[in-house]
User: Fold this.
Amino acid sequence: MLTYVLRRLSLFVPSLLGASLLIFVLMRVVPGDIAEILVFQAGTEASEVQRKQVQQLRAELGLHRPILMQYVDWLGGAVRGDLGYSYTQRRPVFDILAERVPRSLELAVLTLLVAVVWAVPSGVVAATHQNRWADVVARLVSVCGLALPIFLSGVLMLFLLVGLFGWSPPIEFVSFSTSPTENLKQFVWPVLAQAFYIGAPISRLTRSQVLGVLGEDFVRTARAKGLGELIVVYRHAFANAILPVITFIGWWGGRLLGGLVIVETIFSVPGLGSTLMQAVQYRDYPLLQGVVAFMALAFLAITLTVDVLYARLDPRVRYT
Assistant:
């Protein structure tokens, strides 16, 4: 096990380098940069003076140098713990991440918890009541979750909240340490919107996996021995069907930080997703690089954790 974990950890470095290099190059080959955005933000026609200002600003920011040299400089700073200085927020990227990451992590953890709490039991109930009303209701809800994209369900929920209750997204963010009640009030709607979206495929997968295991010989043997239906379902069928579901939940947990861009923008949550959106919009390269590097690291860490959990949940799994 230790050898397997160390080997997986050794793959973190090339994976992070690949992700950072890819986003670094892609952001610099697309048209426009922060210098042009700052100089031409008034929307006026480009004059010779403004063109000189753009060249001067690009030189000050180091954007006139070859992309490879810029990447090497950024990578050297990142190794020393210096992720650079945000062009738009005018403060260190590390400070921005330290402020925004806890908010997005709280949102992601709450979302995943709510999604698992409603999706896994509904999938089990749908499988054990196949083709009955409980199965029909569970499948209808999950199909609605799959059919409605998050940007549509989020906007519809926001319109309903504004129209029916006069609720609007708060202007200022309140941390959990300051006021737990106000903090949870801010998160309840974005959590429900995102959990409905990601819980739908989890419910469908749980249903299909449990249905497949319920037809196995060892389940029929357990019933023939006179065991209660709850013990047969949860101790025998569910325990053997849960591994693919855990893999899927782990995959969702890894990509959830990146997927929070839409829901954070709709509900005005100042987290990592909205920061990423702002960095892309204004070509804030240092901030974008820092956010992407953190998301890649979080995805790798969650994937490794799920893989290690396999050996604990299924004794047949061996790592060499």
